[in-house]
Amino acid sequence: MFGYPFKTIYLKSDQNRNSLHQAILEKTFLSDFNYKNTVKIEKTFYGEVSNQDFKLETIGRKQKIANFAHGEIKGVENDMYIVLRIGSLEHIRIYALFLATFAVCTFFILEGLFVNYKDTYGPAYFDNQLNVILCVLELIFITIISIKSISFQKSLQPTITFFETFLKAKKIEKHEMPDIFNF
Question: CA of 13: how far to CAs of 16, 77, 78, 164, in Å?
């Protein structure tokens, strides 16, 4: 999909659930504790962490990593799998809203060009202020989508490497996860 700034990554770790939970806690300001830095270790994220899942937003500027990471920790004993959804926007709904607004603006621009201004292409189309506003909105949305997509593509591999390193995990394909965890 054009400019889609989201990716799901699957990681496998030989650590147990508590070790993974502790590794994530060390890198995170917790929203549950009013973002207090209780340990003097440099934090990379803030958000919510449990031993089942996590929602993180990047605050560290030393590494070029994606803005948001949502993950689920699945598995038993020392056979753990992490389903990591990384993105440049927090929710896919925001991206869908940008695309829907972009599509509506495009529809009205095309309608204006082909229905209302059949004989007067060019500068006459821009005499109507609504047409100018639609064109400006169109440019703003395409710019936002493009910037988010380019930024995400540049940060994708460093983000994967970062999570592999601090979780002591390796990237796997979806089909390598046991079927019981693929839901």
Answer: 8, 10, 7, 9
How confident is the model over 110-135, as pLDDT tens digits?
887 777 656 655 666 667 788 788 88
Where in the chain is CATH 3.30.160? 6-90+155-181
- One-letter amino acid for residue 148 of the chain: K
What CATH fold (topology level) applies to the domain 6-90+155-181? Double Stranded RNA Binding Domain (3.30.160)
Provide Rg for the chain, Cα atoms: 22
Q: Is the CB of residue 30 less than 8 Å from the CB of residue 177? A: no
6 forms beta bridges with 87
Helix/strand/coil for 19:
helix
SS3 60: coil
70's tokens: 């949502």
